[in-house]
Amino acid sequence: MSKRPQRRKMRRARLNAGDAELIRRALEVRRNAHAPYSRFAVGAAVRCADGTIFTGCNVENASYGATVCAERNAIAAAVAAGKRDFLALAIATVNAPPAAPCGLCRQVISEFSPDLRLLLCNPRGDIMRTSLGRLLPLQFSRRDL
Ligand SMILES: [Zn+2]
Fold it and tell me: What would the mean pLDDT of 53-81 be, rounded to a whole number?
């Protein structure tokens, strides 16, 4: 028996057409990532309550702190279009298993959707389903101000 912990097998989740489209859009926009420093390209696609989809990719900067993640760019694009109600967010990285959003993005997502459904994916077809509530418990919000 191996001493190393068994890596949990990734389930190739069955997707409805809406989730499949959201993942496809996240993978597609990932190709536009500007990530010359980290080489860690990320794409994100958020579905709004009215069915519209907004996308974002990470945009890095030589002044590293000016970098903006794909998730925040997708949320900002939706908000700029007047959308505030979100149903799901797909996040595409090359990682296996797919990477989860950073802490800053979790906080930004929580501003609008404290328990947003998240689909973490990669180009290999791996998909992890989770929710913001699971990734960010005890959220700080406007109710705390
Ligand atoms: Zn982030």
Answer: 98
Residue 50 lies inside a defined structural domain of this protein: yes
In 10 A of CB 37, how many CB atoms?
11
4 occurs within a structural domain: no
- The domain of 83 spans 17-135
Overall domain count for the chain? 1
C-alpha atoms less than 13 angstroms from C-alpha of 99 in its C-beta half-sphere: 17
- In a domain, residue 3? The reply is no
- Centre of ligand 1 to C-alpha 69, Å, is 4
Active-site annotation, residues:
71
- What does the pLDDT look like over 87-114, one tens digit per residue? 999 999 999 999 999 999 999 999 999 9
Q: Please give the mean pLDDT across all residues of the chain.
A: 93
At 99, which CATH number?
3.40.140.10
CA of 49 to the centre of ligand 1 (A): 22
Total-model pTM: 0.91
Q: How far is CA 83 from CA 1, 22, 74, 116, 117, in A?
A: 52, 17, 11, 14, 17
Ligand 1 centre from 101 Cα, in Å?
5
